[in-house]
Amino acid sequence: MSRILDQRILLLVISFSASVWSTKVLSEWKKCGDLECEQAMSRVQATTDYLGPDCRYLNFTTGEEIIVYSKLSRENENLWTGSKGKDFGYFPRDAVKVEEVLIGEELEVLTKETDFLCLHEDNEDTFE
């Protein structure tokens, strides 16, 4: 019985550590096309395959089209956020090339804690 309890405690510690890591704020600021970051900023094409380190990142293969909605600024300017189909997440700007700019001016706004949460239901931790 105590071995099962030890295993469950270990799983809880690992789960807590992973959730703290996956909600780490990547930047305090971001650039967007509007104050709500709902307007598409640009259309880009992947120049390389990319597999992100966790569920907050957008995975793609060379040639796929991505719509960009925001770009982290100041502390972490290399990460942009965008979508392809129903998938949404962060990706490095040097893994894509800009095909079309859709806005005239970028606005810098504060990020929110919710900007750094996983949005994929299939990656949630489950315990039995």
Automatic annotation (TrEMBL):
It is a single-pass membrane protein. Keywords: Coiled coil, Endoplasmic reticulum, Glycoprotein, SH3 domain, Signal. SMART domains: SH3. It is found in: Endoplasmic reticulum membrane. Its main location: endoplasmic reticulum. GO terms for cellular component: endoplasmic reticulum exit site; endoplasmic reticulum membrane. GO terms for biological process: endoplasmic reticulum to Golgi vesicle-mediated transport; protein secretion; vesicle cargo loading. The keyword Cell inner membrane does not apply. The keyword Glycoprotein applies. PROSITE patterns: SH3 (PS50002). PANTHER family: MELANOMA INHIBITORY ACTIVITY PROTEIN 2, MELANOMA INHIBITORY ACTIVITY-RELATED. Pfam families: SH3_2. The gene is Mia2. This is MIA2 protein. Residues 1-22 form the signal peptide. Residues 39-101 form the SH3 domain. InterPro entries: cTAGE_MIA/OTOR, SH3-like_dom_sf, SH3_domain. It comes from Sylvia atricapilla (blackcap). It comes from the Eukaryota.
